[in-house]
Structures are given as C-alpha cells and as structure tokens.
Amino acid sequence: MAPESTSAPAKQPAPSSAPAAASVGAPSWATVARKGKKKATATQKPAPAAKPPSPTNAPAPKKGITLRERELVIKRDGSPLTPTAMELRDTINSALSSTYVQTVSLTGGNVTLTAMETVKATSLNSKASAFLHLIPGATTVHLDTPATQLLVHGLPTSHSLATIVTELTTFNSGLALTQQRRWLTSDESRANKSASSIVITITGPKAPLFVGK
C-alpha cells in the first residue's frame, strides 16, 4: 500500500484577473452636446387670418364743413352796437326758431356769425331776412370766401367803370365783384388810348374759374 503523502497539496495558481476592458476615447464636447440635445418639438404656427377683401369702389370719406364755410360776415355802418355777442347769438337763434348760430364775434365794427358745425353759412345767409334787422346798423351780408384780384385787359376807355362792371357780371355767370374796381393806369395815361386795363376783386365759389382766363 502506497504511503500517503503528508505534504499539502500544491496550490493551484490563482486565475488571472479578467483583462481590463479596452478604454474608449472620451467623446468630444460637441458629441456630448449632440447627444444631450433634445430634438425640439415642431410647433405648428397658426395660419394668418385672411384679410377681408377690399371693396373696389369704396366711397371716399365725406369731407366735413370747414370753418370758412360756416362764417357769415355782416357789414355795419359804424353805429354803436349795444347788444353783446352772446345776446345777439341768442336773439338770432330765437328769431330762426332753431340753433343755427354757434358764436358771434365783433371785429372792426362788423359782426361775424359762425354757424353750427353741421350748418353752412349759405343756409344761414338764405334766412338773413329773418334776423338782419336784429343787428343794429347792418348794411350788407357777405359769405366769408377768399377774394382774388384780377387784371382785365383791352377794355374800351370810352366806357365808364360802372358800365364795364355791368357787362362783366352780366355776361360772366358766377362772377361776383367786391370792393372798388379801378383803372390800372392814371387818367393822364389813358387820355390818348382807346383801351386799357382795370383791376377787379372777385369772390365766391366760382372765383377760381376766372383765374388765368
């Protein structure tokens, strides 16, 4: 019988440790950023509201009445004016049985009536007979329209200014003359001339039609 060995059994060599995993290069910052970047959710923009179709023949905005179109000037003879502006306004509106006049102003001895914002002075002028006697010393009524001076050439010097003015206003519809008309040159300069020029001042809504004629 073989003798038993008293020596300790030989130790088995410890298994070698598992090989280390191959190191992977660290990702670049751009890669990390790309990995960490979440994909933005596409949001659908609302469609713009459709514009209403513009009318092809839209009416032009209505033009309001200007201040000049609302003013009526009452010329006076220079006599004392006793009533105040407010008293005149109230008396005139009372005579018209309605509120036509907004304000009354006294300038240079004359009276200017300013109609309400929706009333033209032409409408007030058509009713002048109802209130003109209430303004002491009133002589004439004038619409506050721009005046233009004109030269009229080739007029016969044998005619008087009164005759010439009658001819001009009779045969030129809408021509309204104001102030004193006069010859352009002196009497001596016209002595040996058969024709000359006069200076006239015209007014009214048709005045621009005669400028440049």
TrEMBL record:
Residues 49-58 have a biased composition (Pro residues). Residues 7-33 have a biased composition (Low complexity). Residues 1-65 are annotated as: Disordered. This is Uncharacterized protein. It comes from Choiromyces venosus 120613-1.
